Amino acid sequence: MRASQEDFESAMNQVKLLKKDPGNEVKLRLYALYKQATEGPCNMPKPGVFDFINKAKWDAWNALGSLPKETARQNYVDLVSSLTSSSESSTQVKPGADRGQQEYENLVVTSEDGITKIMFNRPTRKNAISTQMYQEIMLALKAASKDDSTITVVTGNGDYYCSGNDLANFTDIPPGGVEEKAKQSAIMLRDFVGTFIDFPKPLVAVVNGPAVGISVTILGLFDAVYASDRATFHTPFSHLGLSPEGCASYTFPKIMGPAKATEMLIFGKKLTAGEACAQGLVTEVFPDSTFQKEVWTRLKAYSKLPPNSMRISKQVIRNMEKEKLHAVNAEESSVLQERWLSDECINATMNFLSKKAKL
Ligand SMILES: CCCCCCCCCC/C=C\CC(=O)SCCNC(=O)CCNC(=O)[C@H](O)C(C)(C)COP(=O)(O)OP(=O)(O)OC[C@H]1O[C@@H](n2cnc3c(N)ncnc32)[C@H](O)[C@@H]1OP(=O)(O)O
């Protein structure tokens, strides 16, 4: 959801009430986002080198380039919200604390060495994402966006990274019938993917094994993807009477070119980790025997980099695209709302659930 003028004004008031000084770096960021949101790109003359304070302010504002006013307003509101929640919350999780094992039924969430790790934890179902698990992932990401960690990692427990949407989600029909279920699911899907689009910190996938469906498509919204050489990447949408989600209809052609994206998204070609890396979906592949050790050593080193700089760099890299990604997400969700009611989809799901079919 976009921040309204009212949200913006309320955030400005909250800044005045902050109990703790947020430090110069954050104050400069607030200043820059405020100026960008209210006046647009910086076109003031650059202050002289000895005018330290005004030069720092000018630099911070100027660094936002042509960031749209609405995005700056949203970022200002997000930043203030992260400041107020961190100064108010007495139960805030510090890196090093293990949290969440009681809070989440389908995830294990831990925070250590500046890294929050969100681990899918339904290994006996190959980490298929149930309706409740979609909600838990959204909650865990929202919490991670506000905690003290610098990097957030998503990974899977067991031999699979994730087998995608839990096909049993299709069987839990509410009193409003299957149309109502499709409508609710489209809203949930849009919110779920939107949480990844808006995630403010570096987001890394540690793909420990095969990945299917929505767990693959959303990788296009991550900042880095490290894969074991045991991992595979499979989006069998046509086999299931479905169509792409997770913004893959936009990110995949951009990442790998339209021809390779077609093979994955329309023909359901399963890629090895090496192929996915060659096509730009995966950052780097590691031998399974040393995967965990090598990846976590690297992530621990990255987590020591200055957090604000990493967040701002992510903003600069991603923000111009956010509007587009939200539009793609809305369109994909609305197309799927229809697909879920199609005979092609219903038959494929029934075949899987009655054990007549597997991928
Ligand atoms: C109208 C309402 C709509 C509601 C929708 C909500 C929003 C959805 C948005 C996203 C939509 C779709 C995107 C996708 O993700 S499509 C991809 C869906 N995934 C699959 O089709 C995978 C299905 N699973 C398999 O083909 C195989 O299980 C496997 C992953 C290849 C693994 O095979 P295996 O032989 O190694 O292991 P297996 O014995 O089959 O698995 C162990 C048990 O786990 C169950 N299971 C695995 N994956 C799923 C799954 N995705 N959904 C449900 N159950 C799954 C499997 O059935 C086994 O169970 P059991 O031990 O036999 O009882």
From TrEMBL:
GO CC terms in record: mitochondrion; peroxisomal matrix
Pfam family, one: ACBP
ACB domain span: 4-89
Documented EC number(s): 5.3.3.8
InterPro entries: Acyl-CoA-binding_prot_CS, Acyl-CoA-binding_protein, Acyl-CoA-binding_sf, ClpP/crotonase-like_dom_sf, ECH/Chromodomain_protein, Enoyl-CoA_hydra/iso, Enoyl-CoA_hydra_C, FERM/acyl-CoA-bd_prot_sf
SUPFAM superfamilies: Acyl-CoA binding protein (SSF47027), ClpP/crotonase (SSF52096)
Pathway, per record: Lipid metabolism; fatty acid beta-oxidation
Keyword Acetylation: yes
One MF annotation (Gene Ontology) recorded for this entry: delta(3)-delta(2)-enoyl-CoA isomerase activity
Compartmental location: Mitochondrion; Peroxisome matrix
Coiled-coil region: none
Signal peptide: none
Catalysed reactions listed for this entry: (3E)-tetradecenoyl-CoA = (2E)-tetradecenoyl-CoA; (2E)-tetradecenoyl-CoA = (3Z)-tetradecenoyl-CoA; (3E)-octenoyl-CoA = (2E)-octenoyl-CoA; (3E)-nonenoyl-CoA = (2E)-nonenoyl-CoA
UniProt entry keywords in alphabetical sequence: Acetylation, Isomerase, Mitochondrion, Peroxisome, Phosphoprotein, Transit peptide
Keyword Transit peptide: yes
Protein family (similarity comment): In the C-terminal section; belongs to the enoyl-CoA hydratase/isomerase family.
Function: Able to isomerize both 3-cis and 3-trans double bonds into the 2-trans form in a range of enoyl-CoA species. Has a preference for 3-trans substrates.
Protein name, entry field: Enoyl-CoA delta isomerase 2
